[in-house]
Give the backbone structure.
Amino acid sequence: MSWHVHLPALVIAVPLLGAFIAPVASMLGKVARNFWLVGVSALTALLSVLLWQQVLTSGTAIYVMGAEAFNLSLPSGMSLPIRIILEVDAFSAFMAVVGSIAAFAGALFSTNYMERFSGLDKFAALYFLLTTGMLGMVLTGDLFNFFVFLEIASVASFGLVAFWRDRPEAIEASFKYMVVSTIGAMMILIAIAFLYGRYNAVSMAAVANALRLGYAEKIALVFLIIALAMKCGTVPMHMWTPDAYTEAPAGVTCLLIAVSQASLYGLFRVCFSIYGASLGSAVVPWTIIILGVLSMFIGVSMAVVQKEIKRLMAYHSVSQIGYMLLGLGVGLLALSDPQAMADYGFTAMKGGIYHLINYTMYKGLLFLTAGALYYAAGSRNLNDLGGLARTMPYTTFMFVIAAAAIAGLPPFNGFVSKLLIYESTFAVYPILSIMALVTSVLTLASFVKVFQTAFLGPAKAKLAQVKEVPPGMLLGMSVLTIVIIGLTLFPTWSLSNLVEPAAKALVNQAGYISAVIGGGL
Amino acid sequence: MIGNLPYLVVGIIFLLGLYAVLFEKNLIKIAIGVSLIEASANLLLIVLGYRTGGSIPVFTLAGKVGKMVLPVPQALTLTAIVIGLATSALMLSLIMMLYKHYGTLDVREIRRLRG
Amino acid sequence: MWTKVFSGFGYWDVYSWIIFFFIASGLVLWIRSMGRSDYKKGTEQDEIFYGANAVPEDGSEIQVPASSAYWGFVEALKGYYEKLAEMHSGLTNDYVGYMVVVAAVLVVLVLL
């Protein structure tokens, strides 16, 4: 039995250990703390990649916490799936890789970005707890465990959003996020209680195996969908996102993006793997599609008028979530129809999942460049910035790449995933892809505005002292830039190795169940 | 009928909490509302695991028992209570800092971030 | 490596775009090199033309601020943007309210 068996647990345990050692490491000084922050994040990313490789070669990995088998057998022969299990299929492993890369870039960026502030031992601890929560959400195979990791991530993010606690806005953003998020989490808990009451199980696979759609299941489904859609910032539950993303330190915002993707993962895990074919009517897929279109359009139209750079980008993340909801919603719509699935459903899902990794990378990079601007120029207001391309050439270069990717300019990766979504949603309803195209145009328009006002134009006297940001921040940004360029240059490789296994794992509900249950209970 | 009474109580507590969060303007009252919703979720979990006439789920020294209540929801509830404690404490400390910054507990005054 | 991404309706090939990009940048550089280099340095030919006015020292005097960008777009969609601004009221109660309303509507739709 090689140590590879323990990879799923290690991916969660390493950042958790990192969180509790972080205050100790920071006692040894600044260098030790930064080393710990970056080293543990890098180790987590490495372990995630190893886990992903293992899942691709040897299939879904099951890890049972504290025992050999997932079920408890009573002397009477009855067996219950009660153990906490981690179930890592290709989609989970993909999400873990995406999230841990974003966490690594954010940690690298934060070493220099946060050095002007105190309380960094707590910052490092909360950062690792947030990473743990995010990775736990995507790796777990147990509904209640999912709730626990969601709450770990939420509570850590409340703390991190309010990290600059001398700013009234930061506290305000954190409080609003907290109220909305806690009520959402309680809805998830109530939904889990409903499912538990019906099936005596909290293991996702066991619930999925026994699921017969009734009133309790329908209400549980609605609660789960709404709460998780709120956590990833879907219109009209998105109001906390601009506040929280704007007020959090930039490295944390990069990680918050990954956490919102973990909520999106939860949403689709519930829809595809737990409910799956028994979803019945088309109400739920259409709800997801309509929420997606609303998010795209309202998010982007709010972004066009913003004048604060991070707030503008935060509204864009609302609109980008819409693309993923649209792509995967179309996939969900085609789930019960093999012909439609082969025609456009699977392409839409590939587009959605490919957009997910693209979005996490370029949006994280955009927030990091916004943080770099704030660090160097001391302002987030676009009216105060201007002509920074002369003094900050590297930041400008990376901003241009990220902005081109998010606006879907060819040949960048954002274009490929958007193309897949446009062409497949066109088969369902042309109006959907028209809305997506309009959104893309407005995205380009608002990033042209950011680029023109912040980077181009004559140099301002106020900004004469601005210098390029320190190397740690540049390194953090370049990690994400390299990933974006890689995804751009090798779209075939990333689609067939990263995206397709994930999409297949998501569609294959029977495979998800049988990986745990085997021959049935 | 009487067996369904706990579920009714859960529903009432949940709605009371939701009412407080939706319509109260005082931050402390909103926090109370959130705590009420948490309490109702915990109560729901406990009620689900209870069997009428069941004994505690401990095998050691249990004596002769016909049926036991399910231990899993109780474990879930304990975890949920701990999480609820953490969120309540953090929420109250955020309210404290909001009061320091804004000088008011009225939620209508605390809206610098909008639009 | 040189394969294409098929979307079911068309395909995507990044390398032809990169070749196109190099051709386009070659053209741009060629056109740029056609510019005249025999202008007289230090004379009026060297100065910025700013509508026959004196060029301001500080760039912030001639830059269009970000809040004025897309003014016409926002003005044309004024009603829509007023509604949106009303939606983003900043009130915590409203934020939770939207979630509860969406959940209630969806429960009705799903149960029907």
